[in-house]
Amino acid sequence: MLAHAPVVGRPYRSKRQKPCSACRRRRVCCVREGNSACALCSRRGLDCVVEPSTEKNKNASEKSRPSKAPPRNPSPCRDYFSVNTTIPPASTRRVSEQHVFQYVGPSGDYDPYILLHRSQEGAVREGVIHWSWQRVSKNSHYPIHFLGFPAEHLDAIPTYYPQNKIEAVIGPYREALINAFFDVVHKSFPVLGPQTPFTIPNHSPLLVSIYCLAQPYHPPAQSVDPWLFTDFNKQALPIETHTAKLETVEAALLFAQRHASLIRAPTMPGMSSEVGSLVGIGHDLGLNVDSEHWDISMSEKRRRRRLWWGIFNEDKWTAFVLGRPSHLRDSDANVAMLKLSDFAPEGSELPPPDNLAPAKVFIAMTELSVILSEILSTFYTVKAIHEHSVGLEQLENSCTEFESKLETWRISHLDPLIREKLFPDPTGLSLSASFL
Fold first, then answer.
1. Residue ranges of the domains in the chain?
2. What is the rounded CA–CA span in Å between residue 381 and residue 86?
3. Which of 27, 86, 121, 367 has its CA 20 to 30 A from that of 5?
């Protein structure tokens, strides 16, 4: 309830009715009736409190302030949402946790070559423009920087962000669903790498994606309406693209693997545009740039490689299956191919025994996706089909080349996995079917 008596007058714009503290900090319209909590506080479960001294202090300060003095900008408030930086700061790096960091590309209004000459990292305030920056590579040929902006400037978590009612619904099954995910789903799609049920970030879209994929493998939880998961993530993930983190990519990648709740045509409408958004998030976070020599932890370097190649796999196979153009060009990425160490905990070069075979499967699928990418660019682009007719001999040479690459892939990856006779079989039928 409000901490003041009801006021008569039109909502918010009346000088007699002040906005509550939460709405004032967010600079949004405070809509309320009588003595009830406003719409924002009701939706977010916040205490709707009006500070009676705010207007008085403001008037007093305005009287004492010179008439030509610029208005003071209130400092951003983050009591409702915590955004981690994309690049974990080094021990000597000073970074505000109120900023969301995005990759600085070779073109744009923030030039990486100019930032290279700035002597000290940190926050920059220029009037109403607030930003900060981090340097993760001093390579003069291609300096790597990340810019941080206040989450409020990126439209983070607006009032229409969906309420997470899922945790209350799946409460009795939560632990079992997470265990089922790691026992079954993670074995076939180990994009989370060395993470365990005890190390998963408390990130709502990521957890919802895990529940969504694990539900078919935990019968007691199948009484839960699967559309709860779909509805939440289809609202939350597009909003979180404004303030994307690595957890956002993990959530989107896993959510893209969901089973269709209804068998119809098309089975997964809008999947190509969904993958396009995922590709855009990856570019915002700089996942397409090799991070081997960056000043970040080894665990994040490995995580970034897993996520980039996860995006690559999803993009290429979605393009192939749906008959859509790929969103990725080979010239826009230089990330090294995955290794077993990319699925290992920091300080180790091999993943745990339970994750060794899944890591090999993921690497095999990635190598196969690289071949698929070449096939798509050779035979399935618009120009290849309509503008460049090739002779039979050239076509035969191209097919022979791809057959040779597929045979090499079979010998190097598929045959060793089949000989291991894994149970449960993480290759399923998809790996062999893709090869065939």
1. 1-72
2. 34
3. 27
